[in-house]
Amino acid sequence: MYRAPAVLALALTLAGCADVEGLQNEGDLGTVHAPQSLWKDFRPDPPAPDQKPGTAPVVPGLPEVANLSMRGVNPVSVVRADVTSATEQDGGTGRLVDPRAAQRLALCTQAVDGGPDCPVRPAVFHDLTGNGREELITALDLDGRLSELRVYTVQDDGRIARILSRRAVLEGVEVAAEHLAVREPTSNPAYVAVSDYVWDPKAGIMNLSQLTLDDCASPTGVPPSPDAQRCTR
Q: Which end of the chain is more exposed for a tag (fewer CB within 10 A), N or C?
């Protein structure tokens, strides 16, 4: 008895069930929509003269550094002079500096390190500009969570200028060569946001060059459970 058509039909049926590369069914992908622009008629005001990006503001009220080395400068004095100037400029609005910064600095004594209650973190010195001179890297802790990261350099004329200011939850800060990376928590506990700043010789400041996401590392090295939070929140 001739059964070729039946065998052929069975073969075609089986072939239709096979997982053939390039022909997999990924289900309903939904409808593709064009992006919708929100608030088209709203535009921010242009920046004020003291808000123009791409400039390194000189910190007023500080003596010139004779040997062009930040290691001989009192970090607390630098931060205090910078915060005082910024507070006067923004009138306590928080545009340039958090209003709590001046209150927190009042806890610092005249000691070199500011005393045990001073919220200014120990200074770190690292050459971020590539000119052989170290920059001063520090942070002012506003509360148990939020901080203001600040980086200062000595210009060729001996004046101290701020080349980076960043208000953030500092999950971590890393330096390498002319790079400074700031790690911040995100709404997803599995990832942190990493902002990479590099020295811009033309602008004379640290500019944001890359923003990426990174996996949160477990403090113990043991993979956390699926429902555990892996980053400091």
A: N
Digit-coded pLDDT (tens) for 91-136:
878 888 899 999 999 999 988 889 999 999 999 999 999 999 999 9
> What is 136-172 written as a DSSP string?
EEEEEE-SSS-EEEEEEEE-TTS-EEEEEEEEE--SE
Q: What is the pTM of this model?
A: 0.77
Please tell me whether residue 195 adopts helix, strand or coil conformation: strand
Of the CA atoms within 13 Å of residue 206, those in its CB half-sphere come to: 30
130 and 199 Cβ atoms separated by less than 8 Å? yes
Chain Cα centroid distance, residue 85: 24
Q: What is the pLDDT of residues 150-182, one digit of tens each?
A: 999 999 999 999 999 999 999 999 999 899 999
Q: How far apart are CA 160 and CA 136, in angstroms?
A: 10
Sort 7 into a burial class: Cβ within 10 Å, 0-12 / 13-18 / 19+: exposed
Distance set, CA 150 to CA 54, 79, 182 (Å): 16, 8, 12
- Within the chain, residue ranges assigned H as helices are 4-17, 75-90, 100-105
CA dist., res. 154 & res. 133, Å (int): 8
Q: How far is CA 116 from CA 59, 109, 126, 170, in A?
A: 25, 9, 24, 21
Structure tokens belonging to residue 129: 């500009």
**How far does the chain reach from its first CA to its final CA, in angstroms?**
75
